[in-house]
Amino acid sequence: MTEYSPPPGDPSQLHLRISYDDELWDTPQADTIERWNVAVRHRRRTHRGDQGWVSPNGCVTPDCPACKVEDVAVGAMTFYRVHLDRGRNAYWAMEEESEELYEIAQALLDPETGFYTDEVSEQLEYVGSALLVMDRVTLDSPWRGHGLATVLACEAINRLMAGCRAIACSPGITDLSSRSLTDRSEWDRVNAKITKGWESLGFRPYRDNVYLLSPASEDLEEQRGVLRRRLADLGVAWQAGAS
């Protein structure tokens, strides 16, 4: 297991850049599935000294002319908004898009109609018709281990869930490059930690490895407040350690 180390920068300076690239394709597939990209950015202030750009801890004034602000990418998320009431049959549109989306479609949608199965519908309040899929959440290695992925994903979900009746995900490791995960016990530990993070937002296992969350869930709104306070506390702790 890896030892704990503080984040490489002030967590309170993390922010999201959410974008949808509309290629103006006049096709039923494009009307059904929207891919939303979420860049995780970190805003940091650096000082130009004798050793190049360094931390501005030694600056005399906050408006030091030798300082600059950088905005760097430290992670990314991918979400899909699937419209069940327009374009082509959503079940087969998801099958064509990716294997991961197809697995979710098989668990939640009726292949004949492209709508939620009766069993799924019974578990969800009617607050919209679309399906939001949290497909991928990644952070650069130095930023992991602090619960930040859950904080940031919760914010992205809150921005993208309007008009959706369900939010789905399949918890698991997405970055397979880490050598520490070659050990089976470490792999299982990290997977369990990821799953626990999504369950804290209100995701619940539905079928196979598909987890389901209602946008109307009180857990989601309550956890958003908890996670925002956690992010603020992490920022205070980091600033205390850096001073």
Describe this structure in words.
With 243 residues, the chain is an alpha+beta fold. The chain has one domain (11-242): Gcn5-related N-acetyltransferase (GNAT) (Aminopeptidase). It is built from 7 helices and 8 strands. It has helices spanning 28-32, 90-97, 99-108, 118-121, 148-160, 184-200, 218-242; strands at 14-20, 33-49, 52-54, 67-82, 130-139, 164-169, 204-207, 210-213. Strands 1, 2, 3, 4, 5, 6, 7 and 8 form an 8-stranded mixed sheet that branches. Strand 5 (130-139), helix 5 and strand 6 form a beta-alpha-beta unit. Helix 2 packs antiparallel against helix 3 (99-108) and helix 5 crosses helix 7 (218-242). The protein starts with 13 loop residues before the first strand and ends with a helix.
Write the layout of secondary structure elements.
Layout: E1 14-20, H1 28-32, E2 33-49, E3 52-54, E4 67-82, H2 90-97, H3 99-108, H4 118-121, E5 130-139, H5 148-160, E6 164-169, H6 184-200, E7 204-207, E8 210-213, H7 218-242
Parallel strand pairs: 5-6
Antiparallel strand pairs: 1-2, 2-3, 2-4, 4-5, 6-8, 7-8
Helix pairs in contact: 2-3, 5-7
